[in-house]
Design goal:
By secondary structure, the protein is mainly alpha-helical. It contains nine helices and no strands. Helix 1 runs antiparallel to helix 4, helix 7 runs antiparallel to helix 8 and helix 7 runs parallel beside helix 9. The longest helix is centred in the middle third of the chain and has 27 residues. The two termini are about 35 Å apart.
């Protein structure tokens, strides 16, 4: 940020603030209580009473979210309680983080400040997107997008030719996301794996290990 001009910093800050406002507005506008929204508060109620073994009796689906969503939500619930307001806050934080991360990835690739226009645009999607579109279930499934984008960021910033901390962290986040929500595999893991293989075997940018 220190290398940005004052105008660029102002432009980015304005878009970040608008993105936050839109995230609050549209999450509140489209919020609905369904089974996925009630998932973590329901299980948290049992876990807080009977311990983590209570999950043994939870009828989870293939998308368990045990490693991706539960730890984050449970920490927040422990600190602030499990309420509709807190669930909305988590959804707002998630939409905001996704929008900013995508804008930052685009900026990193283009070096164009107008990439940050994506932030308010992506945080103001329609009710269709919130119900059956790519960000459906913002309190659950959509966190998989965040894990995927963090892996993309690590991949972009990883310029070393030998295995390093960023490689290990990418692998760790991928395992957490894939075990918790299998659609991470075709959406993010496979493209990343193909890209890494391309860099390793064709571009010779990575140690073969």
């Amino acid at each position: 940020m220190n290398t940005f001009s004052l105008n660029t910093k102002t432009f980015i800050m304005v878009n970040v603030l608008i993105c936050f406002f839109f995230s609050c507005f549209f999450v509140t506008l489209h919020f609905s209580a369904d089974g996925d929204v009630a998932n973590t508060p329901t299980t948290w109620n049992e876990v807080s009473k009977y311990g983590i073994l209570a999950l043994k009796y939870w009828g989870r689906t293939t998308d368990s979210w045990y490693l991706s969503v539960y730890p984050i939500h449970y920490i927040v619930f422990y600190l602030f309680g499990a309420s509709i307001t807190i669930i909305k806050f988590l959804e707002i934080a998630q939409i905001f983080s996704l929008s900013i991360t995508i804008a930052f990835i685009c900026y990193n690739e283009t070096k164009n400040k107008f990439s940050f226009l994506l932030a308010p645009i992506l945080s103001s999607l329609s009710s269709f997107a919130f119900s059956v579109g790519y960000i459906a279930h913002p309190a659950s499934h959509n966190i998989t997008n965040l894990y995927g984008l963090f892996c993309v960021l690590l991949f972009i910033f990883n310029t070393k030719k030998t295995i390093n901390v960023k490689d290990v962290l990418t692998c760790f986040l991928s395992i957490i996301a894939a075990v918790s929500d299998p659609w991470f595999l075709p959406s993010y893991y496979l493209p990343l794996l193909i890209s890494i293989a391309y860099k390793a075997f064709y571009k010779k940018e990575k140690d073969i290990r």
